[in-house]
Design brief:
The protein is an alpha/beta fold. It has helices at residues 56-62, 97-104, 109-114, 119-128, 131-147, 163-179, 202-219, 237-249, 266-273, 286-295, 303-309, 316-321, 342-353, 357-363, 366-371, 399-402, and strands at 10-15, 17-19, 37-38, 41-46, 49-55, 70-73, 78-81, 83-85, 150-156, 183-191, 225-230, 253-258, 277-280, 298-301, 326-328, 389-392, 409-414, 417-421, 429-430. The structure holds N-(iminomethyl)-L-glutamic acid and fe (iii) ion.
Amino acid sequence: MSRGRQRADLLINHASTLVTMSPSIPHTGSMMSQVAVIRDGAVAVSEGRITAVGKTTEVEASVEIGPSTTVLDANGKTVTPGLVDPHTHLVFGGWRADEFGCLLRGVPYKQLLAEGKGIQQTVRATREASFMALVEKAMPVLDWMVRWGVTTVEIKSGYGLELETELKQLNVIRQLMQMTTLDLIPTFLGAHAIPPEYKDRPDEYISFLVNVMLPLISERHLAEFVDVFCEPGVFTPSQSETLLKAAKDQGFGLKIHADEMESSGGAELAARLGATSADHLMAASDEGLDAMARAGVIAVILPGTSLVLRKPAANARRMIEKGLAVAIATDFNPGSCPVQTLPLVMSLACLLCGMTPEEALCAATINAAFACGRGNVVGSLEVGKQADIVIFNAPDLSYIPYRVGTNLAEVVIKKGKIVSRSQFKMGVIQGVG
Ligand code: NIG
Ligand code: FE
């Protein structure tokens, strides 16, 4: 349970509900709901890492608690791993409030894209935006996310669709990494749409991505993952495969926007290539989902997007029954999902996708961590892991999705340091101002 009597920098004790989300593997199928809960639980932290987890009496006996130890009494609270948002498009210029009205009048999302609106509108605004304007726009969103309990976020490029602006977006993410306490994971989504310069020449654009952009991004270590919007009218499975195979050869992890509106083989492709995740999956075939389960591809569902596009949400129940590991994410972007609040999306996962609160928390912690390549570092509260922890003002974990749209995150801890505290009073706090 602990590594000897190490001095604790931080001790959270007497948690009414402590959810560890162990073990540190993707939680598949029925494992997603088998969430081990420790009553009167405690977590001890030294030098940013977890040194003990268990019952308060056991943890207190196993670590040294001195005058410099910050002690947070979590009686009446729920303590969980820091939340992980494994799919966002957080760096962009402009907004698309004008299109919201179109969506409400029933204009299909793909029609907007075909008319040069949608993603293309954000591409124009992002090309025009300065580097600093993009940084300044993204920072408050990250601050918002932290305050709601999110400690790790994946961010995609994809609003440049040309070398200069794609690099600008990826460099903005790199800059944000220096400025925020959050861990950020950069993903290259140069294949988000066909740029106007390559209209009717998508194969040539894919060749450009493979031969010019990927080597440069790899050389500059600007992205960990490569993603593609595989969808009829955007990129075909064959074009997606060409890009992703090249990305794999160059050492990138793989992600796919798969089967969002129509089933076109995206889930099957993700399984064949051993992608880390396939995301959206509202229209995924049974065969595709089965293949993903066999290949260990994480299914990332994005119920906020279904809500905004007014489409039937992904059927998480079916995915879990098929033995998949399901994660949830905001998909925050200015078009299909201007939702930046992961706990709200956890509520939607329960209300629209058939998840239980236990499954939703699993999907937003350990499975989300594996969906963005951080499963061995964050996502669960285990000895040796990074101390990313949230204390929710909730006696039980079900309150987190049940109190729809309410921020219950009271204390947010990143790498052992308190990075957000709401105005609500804690039971007992020592050592913090
Ligand atoms: O994941 N589906 C493709 N891409 C994004 C939407 C981006 C946008 O509309 O700006 C998504 O929903
Ligand atoms: Fe997306």
